[in-house]
Specification:
Blueprint: H1 3-10, H2 13-26, H3 32-59
Length: 60
């Protein structure tokens, strides 16, 4: 896979969730990084879409 595609695949939120779940399932101690990445994605999506949803409901 080309370099940029590999980087994008590594920070993909679905990949992060799968990696965290896999690490927690097998008892690997390296589940913190993908878990924090997943939480960062969640926080970022909430910061973007909650204000948009509130604005949309107020206009309706």
């Amino acid at each position: 896979m080309p370099g940029i595609m590999h980087t994008l695949a590594d920070i993909n939120p679905v990949s992060l969730v799968v990696n965290a779940a896999r690490a927690l399932t097998i008892g690997d101690g390296h589940a913190l990084a993908p878990t924090l990445g997943t939480l960062a994605w969640l926080g970022g999506l909430l910061l973007v879409f909650v204000p948009l949803a509130v604005r949309g409901f107020r206009q309706a």
